[in-house]
Amino acid sequence: PCIFDFDGKLTGPLNHLRTILPPDQLSEIGYVNIGMDTTDPSNPIPRPIDQRYSYFQTELNLALQSRLPDGSRQYQTFIYDSVTSMTIVMQAHIIRTVERKTQRSEAEFCQADWGTFLILWRKLVPTLRSAGRNTIFIMHERAEKDELNGILKLFPNLPGQFQNEFGALVDNIWRFSTQTIGQTSNSYRDWE
Questions:
Q1: Among 68, 71, 87, 110, which is 20 to 30 Å from 140 by CA?
Q2: Predicted TM-score of the model (pTM)
Q3: What is the DSSP string of 177-188?
Q4: Helix residue ranges, H only, the chain
């Protein structure tokens, strides 16, 4: 798989995998840390948030075109972690682009930017799907309790009405959660 890490929280798990996986299996994992500039691996520095989406686009195009020596596709699966962080990066990209075009001085996402935001998503997901690759979006959720009937409702942790529209862009939505096993320093989290 090729993993695009938007929130930088996969570095630790990947370092753990490096200690337990054989080199041939480890070499099959592509990892792109969108939030950090690792040009100098001994001194990674945070990449400015408004430059992360452009970097992501460049790395995604390279990964989509990447081939093995036999000519087959190098990556069949693309993983994006997390969509919640990815939306923040997209919003920063839009703000930067709009500021350049209009000289708008406020540096925050406003109502007029929502159309551009949705267009970015509506272009990105079909592009990924038309490439014929498995696409996995990882996102956080938030809970809301319905005041009338007391039912707990779960929503993707996405901004505004996009939380209701994201499901229309994908084929399946699966919910995973973890549970802590043990209560010592050796505890670990397991999928439920």
A1: 110
A2: 0.80
A3: -EEEE-SSTT-E
A4: 11-20, 23-26, 52-65, 83-102, 114-130, 162-165
